[in-house]
Design brief:
- With about 475 residues, the protein is of the alpha+beta class.
- It folds into 2 domains: about 80-195, Phosphorylase Kinase, domain 1, CATH 3.30.200; about 200-473, Transferase(Phosphotransferase), domain 1.
- The chain is about 30% helix and about 10% strand.
- It has helices at about 15-55, 130-140, 170-175, 200-205, 215-230, 285, 295-310, 320-330, 365-370, 375-385, 395-400, and strands at about 85-95, 100-105, 110-120, 150-155, 190-195, 200, 235, 245, 255, 260-265.
- A 5-stranded antiparallel β-sheet has the order 1-2-3-5-4, covered by helices on one side. A 3-stranded antiparallel β-sheet has the order 6-8-9.
- A hairpin with a 5-residue loop joins strand 2 (about 100-105) and strand 3 (about 110-120).
- Helix 5 (about 215-230) runs antiparallel to helix 7 (about 295-310), helix 7 (about 295-310) packs across helix 10 and helix 9 (about 365-370) crosses helix 10.
- The longest helix has about 45 residues, at about 15-55.
Length: about 475
Amino acid sequence: MASKAKSRWADDKDDAALDAQLKKEKEEKKRLKTEKRLKAERARALEAEQQTQDAAAPVAAATDGAAPKLLRFDGGSFGRSRTIAHYDMLNGISQGSYGWVSRAKETATGEVVALKRLKIDPKDLGGVPVTALREIRVLKACDHRNVVKLKEVVVGDDTSKIETYGTDSTALSTPLRSPSLTPARPPSIFLVLEFVEHDLWSILHDMPQPFLASEVKTLLQQLASGVAYLHEHWIIHRDLKTSNLLLNNRGQLKIADFGMARVVGNPPPALTQHVVTLWYRAPELLLGEARYTAAVDLWSVGCVFGELLTHKPLLPGTNEVDQLTKTFELCGVPTDDSWPGFRRLPNARSMVLPPSTSTRSTTTTLIRAKFPLLTSAGAALLASLLSLDPARRPTASEMAGHEYFRQDPRPKREELFPTFPSKAGQERARPRETPEAPARGQQAPDLRGVDFSGIFQAREREENGAGFSLRMV
C-alpha cells in the first residue's frame, strides 16, 4: 500500500523556528512596554515628592548665576483664632453702640493696641450680629493711612480682667460659661486695632483754644482722603462723627468704628434709613429715602467741618423733628429748585413747610451768616457739603481738590501738628454728651404730616449775609 503523501501546508522545522522567533519578539515588546510604564510611574512619583518638599520648605533666596526657580506660595489653611490670653488688659477707654474699647498690651511684643469687644446678645439665636461681621469684613479689606488698621480678631471666654466702661461692668465680670444645665454663651469676640491716642470729640471739648485755619484744613484733607478711599471701594461708613475720628500724636487722622458700614453697588440697594448718629444724619435719611448714596457721608463730613470751626455740634437736634428744624434753619427749606423731587420721599409728601416767600435765602448765604470769619472758598465748600439735594454735594475726591485747600493759609504739615496729652492710659474717658448711633433693628420714626411752617417766624425782617469776610493769612 502506498504511503500517504505529505501536505504542502504541513509545518516543518523552518516554520517552528519562525514561530519561536515571533513569540520571542512579542514577549520582548511586552517587557519593554512594561518597563517603560514602570519608569514613567517612578518619574511621576519622584516629581510629586519633589513638589511636596518644595511646598513645605521656605523659598530660598536666589543667588547670582543660579537657575531661576518657580515661586510657590502657601495658601494657608483654616484654623482657630488666637485667644485674648495673648494680651494684658490695661484700662477701659470708651463704649460705643456696637462694642466696648479697652487699651491692652500684647505680651509677646509689648505693643499697645486697642481691643474692641463686640456686643453679642446671648438671647439672639442668630449668633454673631451682622454689624460685627460687616465691620470685620470692611476693616480687613481696607488698607489706607487714614483708616484705622485691624490687626487680628481674637476670642476669649474669660473677660473678668477687662476694665469696662459704663453700666455693663457687672455683666463683663461674670464668667461667660453658664452652668451645664443652661445653654453655653458664645465666647467674646475682640477686634485688635492699632491704638490711636485721641478722638476729635475729646480734643474739641478739652483744648482751650480753637484749631487754627491751617489745622482745620489738615484734618479735613485727611478726612476727605479716607472717605474717598472708602467710596472708591464701594464702602459707605454711615456714622461719620467727631467721636469716630481718631488723631494720633503725629498729626494723622484715622476713621474708625465701622459698625454701621455697608458695601454697596451701583445702583445702590434699598437700605435702612435709621442710620448715622442723629446730629450728623443727612436730610434724605430723615425724610425716609431708602436708596441713598455715599452722599450721606459727605453731609456728615460737612457737620464735622462746622464742628471743627465752632467747637460744638453744628446741628444738635433733640429728636428727628428738631433735627429737621435745625437743618432747615441753617440750610433753608427745600423747594423744587433747591431739591428737585424731594416731595416724593415718604416723610415729605404730607409735610407742611413755610411759604416760599420765607425761604428766599440760599444755603451759601445762611452759611456765610453763621461763619462770618470763613473765607468765601471755605463757605462755598461747607455750603456744598450741606446741600439739601444729595446730588449737589461734591464727592470726597472733589472735596480734596477744592480751592479752599489751595488758599492761604495752606494746610499745616502733619509733623508740625500740635500734640495733646493722652487720657487713654490714665483714666476712663468720660461719657459723651452726644446721642448714640441707631441700634440694629430699630425702626425709623414716621415724620409724615409734621408742621414746619413756623420755623422762620419773626425772621422776615432780618438781613441775611455776612456783610464782610476776613481773609485768613
